[in-house]
Each structure stands twice: as structure tokens, then as C-alpha cells.
Amino acid sequence: MIRIALDVMGGDYAPAELVRGGIEAARIHNVHTLLVGDPQAIAPIVQQHDLTMARVDVVPATQSLAMNEDPVRAVRARPDASVTVANRLVRDGQADAAVTLGHTGAGLVSALFTLGRLPGIDRPAVGVPYLSIQPKTLLIDAGANVDVRPRHLLQFAAAGSAFMHAMHNIPHPTVGLLTNGTEDNKGGRVSRQAFDMLQQSNLNFIGNLEGLDLPRGTANVIVCDGLTGNIALKVSEGLAEVLLDRVAAALREALPANIAQEMVLPLLHRLQTENSYAYIGAMPLLGVNGVSLIGHGRSRAQAVIGAMGQARLAVEKHLVGALQTELADVVGEENA
Fold this sequence. Notes:
By secondary structure, the protein is an alpha/beta fold. The protein has two domains: 3-119 and 287-317, Isopropylmalate Dehydrogenase, CATH 3.40.718.10; 125-276, Isopropylmalate Dehydrogenase, CATH 3.40.718. The protein is 51% helix and 17% strand. It has 13 helices and eleven strands. It has helices spanning 16-28, 39-47, 71-77, 82-91, 104-115, 150-168, 189-200, 213-216, 226-254, 257-274, 277-280, 301-316, 319-335, and strands spanning 3-7, 32-37, 55-60, 97-100, 125-130, 134-140, 174-178, 204-209, 221-223, 282-286, 292-295. An eleven-stranded mixed beta sheet has the order 3-2-1-4-11-10-5-6-9-7-8, sandwiched between helices. The radius of gyration is 20 Å and the shape is globular. The model has no long low-confidence stretch (mean pLDDT 90).
């Protein structure tokens, strides 16, 4: 049984929603959930839930991190923080994956300090599928690295390509660089230098892309810095929520109540669910030497269930090994 260490002390709805999601995920995904955090806070919540057919244990962590703290200072100052304990369980072979839904920066720093980097990676990155609009398009980086160098974008591209190959069985994923135009000379200095490096790599690079290429699924992997990627992702999530809500409201007014309720609104509800962050839950941090996933700080139980499913899939697909193989090819070319 796959063991997943869940940090239940981070995020807006910790620990109650995270504990509930972890228990449900143990049952739904047939995994062994390790609830990492303050036992005195966790125990009363666990007692409120039915543990039938759910393998769940509590792993003590005496410290936690707040969402507004500097991630490097906080992680260094609190070695027994729940996110670090979860990653330590992976490092020591007591868990197969770690999941945190709290401070994104702290999740990255903790995984980096605890698990280390894969060869050929300077900075790990977060890749996120472009909702259900284009599930075979991965946006990377989606928020972990705001300031980047050209070689970092090359590494993101290699990691994203390996992810799409391993997780989606795409033999030669196409890679595009997100800039302000499709011409070869678009973008700033970093993008232009990264363009040359990507063009010379053995990746299936198809050139520069614009923002409108994201919803069109023009490439399997769309590469950018974390600031650009996070803004693009959050705008897309917000736009999908607002548009679907407005469509639902308009249809309630335009259609007879029975038709709207029985035929149209269930379809819209499904679309809303599939295009919500909770549908995916969390994504692996690509480039650390272990399976460590990061999700939204506003996650509730349903997002936890999605995150645990992603963690199980990453373990089953041997994601870390796939990344090592892909990165070895790219780094070998870069250093040749």
C-alpha cells in the first residue's frame, strides 16, 4: 500500500478539512495516510470520522508555518514543522510521497532542503495542467520561481516534458516558450536566451507562444517564469469560475425550471468541478529527489482527495526516475 504523508497544519482550513480529506482519500485511493501535525489538534477530528476501510496514522510534528512567513527563514528556524516532517518521512523511506496544501514557498524550500535536487536541476518547479480545458497542456513554472535565468527555463522544459511523458504517455511532448508573441525575437533577454537553448536541445521545441495558446493547447508543455505562470493560471481559474457562474445564472432565467435543473445545470456543475483547483488538488514539485506535492492554501477536503490521488499516481508512474532520465539527456547536451 502506498504511504502518503499529509501535512495537515498548513492552509486556510487546517487541520479539520485536511484531516477529513486525508481520511476520505485513504478509503477512495486505497492509500495509507500519515496525518502529520499536532496530535492534540488532530485526535479530536479523527474521532469524529468513520475509519472503516481507511488506513490512517498520526505522525507528530511540534511546529507549523504561517502563510505570511518568509519561507527560507521559517523552514530553517523550525526543523520540526509539519511540512518538513512530511518530507523527511519520504527522505527516510517511511512514506512514498508528501503532500502540503499550505505555504507554497515553504513547501518548496522544505522539499529542497530535505530531499535535495535531482542532478541537472538548479531550481525545482511546479507544473500545473491547464484545467480540464487542456488537460494535456502543462504550464511550468506555475509559481515557485519568480526570478529565473535562461538555463532554469530549459530545465523547466525538460522536467515538464518528462512529466507529460511519464504521466500522460505522450512519447515526444511538444514544448513552447510563453512570451509576448510567436516570433523568434519576442520576449525579454532571459526569454530570448532560453529560446536559443531550447532550440538547440533535444526537446521537441516548437517555438514561442502567446497567452492565447494556453487554452488552445498549442503545446504539451508551456514554459515561463513563476510570476508569469502564476498570474496566467490564477486569471484562467478566476475567469472559468466567473464565466461558468454567469452561464448558470443566465440559463436559470432563460429556461423552465425543470429543464434547467434536470438537464443543463448538472452539466455546468460538472464543468465547474473539472475546472476547479480542487479537481487536481496538488501537483508534484518537479526537480527534487522524491515525490513532494504542493497544492492551494485554500484547499478543503475535496482538494485533499484530489491531491492524494495525484500523489499516488506520481508514485505508481515512477515520476522521479522518469525525470532523472530526461534531465540526464538535456544536461548532457548542455554541457557538451
